[in-house]
Amino acid sequence: MKNVLVIDDDEKICWAFEQFLEEEGYSPSIANNAEEGLRRIASGKPDVVLLDVKLPGMSGLEALARIKARYPRVIVIIITAYDDVETTVEAMRLQAFDFVPKPIDLDVVKSTLERAFQAQSVRSTLPVKPAGKPPKGQRGPRLVGKSDQMREIYKLIGIMASNTMTVLIEGETGTGKDLVARAIHAGSERKDMPFVPVNCGAIPDELLESELFGYEEGAFTGAKAEGKPGRFELANGGTLFLDEVGNMTSALQVKLLRALQTQEIERLGGTSILKVDVRVIAATNQELGQMVQLGQFRDDLYYRFKRIALHLPPLRERSEDVPLLITHFLQLAQDELGKPIRGISEEGMKLLHRYEWPGNIRELENCIRSAATLARADVIMPADLPIEVQTGSRPTPANASLLEASLEATLHRVIQQAIADEKKGLYDDVIAMVDKVLVGLVLDEFSGNHSKTAELLGMSRTTLLKKIRQHIEE
Q1: Taking the domain 318-391, which CATH number applies?
Q2: Which CATH code for domain 148-315?
Q3: Helical H runs in 71-147?
Q4: Model pTM?
Q5: Which of 62, 296, 312, 450 is most buried, by CB atoms within 10 Å?
Q6: What are the tens digits of pLDDT across the range 369-408?
Q7: From CA 282, how far away is CA 336, in angstroms rounded?
Q8: What is the distance between the alpha carbons of residues 228 and 257, in angstroms, rounded to a whole number?
């Protein structure tokens, strides 16, 4: 029998709940205050508690906190007023499963109870106790997987850790290139020296050179009076990880190649040569070979990187690793949220296995953390998963027909105004306006990164710079 405890000081509401619950096949019990409710929970262990917030003596929220602390497996549904936002927020923070608003709608109560007992049913199919915590060194971000592809990756990491040659890590976004670079460093003789990561795609082109090589006093407007060491200097004796290296300008590629060949650098605005001892690991989600053919990446630097190359497979090609990754990310989510999660429902697991993970491991990690945060009980249900996982497809970009309709309505007003003003040259004005707005918006999205902006817009950097000078800097 499904046991439901109602804690409410209104006798009429208690009577109505009792009749309704019996009709629906539940076994109800009643308590008229929080203290009595806690005693009944201690003796009767109900599956679900319907708890009113406004009670004589101990408040409903205080009772909720005590229930979840002493009996975390008991599901608590709060009864509160529709407009009591503060109480609702606090109740959800205290891990209430859901809330039933007043005036009470029995259909809402019915559907909420059905979801609560569905979560209880799923919980009963999971292990009695959550899996124990992994060893301390395995609780943070780390490489996870036992597939054949990952076993080969581990072998290559071991080989690469045994020497100091430049390494190129290739793979789609979110496949774990950063973790592989760190694993190579951690397994090498340089493990006690600095590991310095640089995301070349996140730093504007005009700043990346000074970030890598540093600068001297007066090197450019706004330069610090004392100058600044670059990442090469900071990584001296250790490893410099250059992520998204395909975004470097041709001029910077030349300077990087020289640094790799000579282990010497020169600060921006400086005149002295600095000797460094740095191992470089590069990573990219782009096809550098194709970029070489198109003249977008230097072939000599490419072949310097390509001496030792490691390709990380996308998650869709190593689906047998998904359960291991889910377990790992669930543990991380529990540690982060301080919230026990026993597992994921069978249907939820089916959805996770069916999804193709275009964002790879990073998308899976974000999915599990989001679901763990949204879970109303200590199990993750299908409704807790992102909509794209539930439906099996990612949300489509802005609908083209809606965009066209919006543009048509806007341009219609522009045309009418131009006619009224007897204006000429409307075509050139509109194209210039669209150019300015579009280029400006994409630049903002990429924090001023010219390479990524040009790539998204489908134009060369030369054309982009021309448009910036024409429309943005005018």
Answers
A1: 1.10.8.60
A2: 3.40.50.300
A3: 85-93, 106-125
A4: 0.68
A5: 312
A6: 999 988 888 889 998 999 889 988 765 554 445 566 667 7
A7: 30
A8: 22
Query: Are 312 and 284 a contacting pair, CB within 8 Å?
Result: no
Query: What letter represents residue 421's amino acid?
Result: D
Residue 95: left if φ>0, alpha if ψ -120 to 50, beta else—which one? left
pLDDT digits 0-9 by tens, 217-251: 766 666 666 778 999 999 999 999 999 998 888 88
Distance, CA of 377 to CA of 92 (rounded, Å): 11
Q: Where are the domains of the chain?
A: 2-125, 148-315, 318-391, 400-472
DSSP state, residue 187 = T
Please give, one letter per residue, the 3-state secondary structure of 145-167: CCCHHHHHHHHHHHHHHCCCCCE
Cis ω before 358 (30° cut-off from 0): no
Report the C-alpha gap between 291 and 444 in whole angstroms: 25
| Alpha carbon distance 423, 133 (integer Å) | 72
Cβ proximity of 394 and 358 under 8 Å: yes
pLDDT computed for residue 396 by the predictor: 52
Structure-token pair, residue 189: 């003789």
For 439, the token pair is 């280029």
Model pLDDT, residue 398? 47
3-class state of residue 274 by DSSP: strand
Residue 99 structure tokens: 């809330």
**Cα–Cα distance between 217 and 307 in angstroms, integer?**
37
Lowest mean pLDDT among 4-18, 203-217, 455-469: 455-469
Does residue 301 or residue 417 have the better pLDDT? 301
pLDDT above 60 for 474: no
At the topology level, CATH places domain 400-472 in Arc Repressor Mutant, subunit A (1.10.10)
